Amino acid sequence: MNVAGAGSIDFAVLQQAAEWFAVLRAETVAEHDRLAWQRWLEAQPQHRLAWQRVEHISGQFERLPQRQAARSALQARGVNRRQAVKMLSLLCGGGALLHAARARPWQAWQADQRTAVGEVREGLLSDGSRLWLNTDSAVDVAFSSAERRLALYRGELLVETAGEARPFSVETASGRVQVAGARFGVRERDGATLVLAYEGALEVFATRLGWRQRVEAGEQLSFSADHLDRPTPLRLGAQAWTHGVLQADDMRLTDFIDELARYQHGHLGCDPRVAELRLVGAFPLADRARIFTALEASLPVRVVQRLPWWITVEPRQA
């Protein structure tokens, strides 16, 4: 079943659905409350979509331990298959790895390196390159004597390549990023790939278009399999996550909340009435409670938690 994303449902309707969910999950529910909820549910198609959205998030949150256990079991059974895929990718010049980068979602569960929601990890690759993985990310590694390849299934990575001659590339569902020696980031988001060049230049290849675009140090570029944007200047603080920090430099509150939502389970939303407020600062990703306190202290907002997994940032009441 496809469940509409929060962005396609009116904020107020989502809030109503969360409130009804809290009412119906109480230990005792009056019959008139059940009937009122049923009338609300049937009043508009948006109400039913919002209710499905809340149920979907609730199910993800409450089944998390079981999901983690199932994923671990799948990984244990898939070790031989993963090794076979990587060997085939090397024999075929990387074609199988590219195919794997487009396959979803179970390949991500078997990926060589993964992070959980809220986890940021740093490590070394076999060639000495440094790899950072952001929250909820998955990547496969396939190095040979001739080349170095990564396949990013989901999330975000940052690489500081070791200085050697072998070419280094990252495959995504949108295409390929080729580097010769650089510090760069790649992020999968909303069906597209965002490439960020911190040091050194990159070459981006869009799969379906057959186009290529050079990205210089200090630039970023978004592309998909059939669309290629022009490079734009890097957002200040774009790599701060590698130090466990979410940096805002005159950032819209709604964009800040969207970024922060990547680091926690459940729903984190921003009321449209405060969406355009601007935010400046560096916020510790490991301490969301501290971030919420800072938001309430610096902006005319309040952070409301209607359910353990449903939090919204709303206008402060007079």
Automatic annotation (TrEMBL):
Residues 114-202 form the FecR protein domain. InterPro entries: FecR, FecR_N, Ferrdict_sens_TM. This is FecR domain-containing protein. Gene3D superfamilies: 2.60.120.1440. Residues 15-56 form the FecR N-terminal domain. It comes from Zestomonas insulae. Pfam families: DUF4880 (PF16220), FecR (PF04773).
